[in-house]
Amino acid sequence: MVQTLTAPETTAFGDGRELPPRTRGARGRSRLLRLARRPGFVLASVLVAFVIVAAFAPTLFTDYEPYATAPAERLRAPSGAHLFGTDDVGRDLWTRTLYGADLTVKAALLAIAIGLGAGLLLGVVSGFLGGVLDALIMRVVDVQLAIPGLLLALSIVTALGFGTIPVAIAVGVGTIPGFARTTRAEVLRVKTLPYVEAARSGGGSWPRVLIRHVLPNSWGPVLALAVVDFGAAIIAVAALSFLGFGAAPPEAEWGSLVAAGRNFLVTAPWVSLLPGALVALTVLALNHIAQTMREVRR
What we know:
By secondary structure, the chain is mainly alpha-helical. Helices cover 68% and strands 1% of the residues. The protein is built from 11 helices and 2 strands, in the order E-E-H-H-H-H-H-H-H-H-H-H-H.
């Protein structure tokens, strides 16, 4: 009787050695503990979690209406009653900023979903199949990388029309090349490791090997890139909104809030600076999270 070899569900060290499942689980718990011991990572995670929760449930953090005007309260400085002050028509700026997260963060999440989905597909097909198809896909990706991201987004949103969804699609298309190249590089690395060859020798089909071994062990760097690109997508969405390509007034987006305060930078600088500061802190927090994840994986 011939004994059939089956590939163990393992990952690998950087030098290609196999890592048993139990060791892999212990290593994952060790990474989580190392992350939890880093105050900067914890603080950044709390900030990002707050922004995401505020995007989906802004009423948890404010009792004001985002569109209710109060001319007698216009351009009030930050205080206990108005945490971020008020704008030029008396609307509570903290409330407007929270509701702005609703559109901006959701648009950035949609953009990352588009880029991640398409980039994973292209990267897996390119790296796993190789040959002429690999060369063709990578040349298309190289051409897209040669086009400045903001210029590409402006071209797409101009063709699709103004609004939050067109902005999200435009930004998402711009993130596809990065995900495609990163996924391809990881697939090329993982598919030559010993446990993948063992799975093939044991009779596993290429689709089974791809799903059970290659993709799970290629996910780490792609996930870190998704976190970084989420911050970049927030910046891009806010930039397009600042230029007037986002949602129409009186809806609030982070970029449009910053743009609305440009005429009051001397008399009421908080109208632009405080929403802009929240955008900057959110992006810095996401970058710190991604960088810490890379360091812990080493």
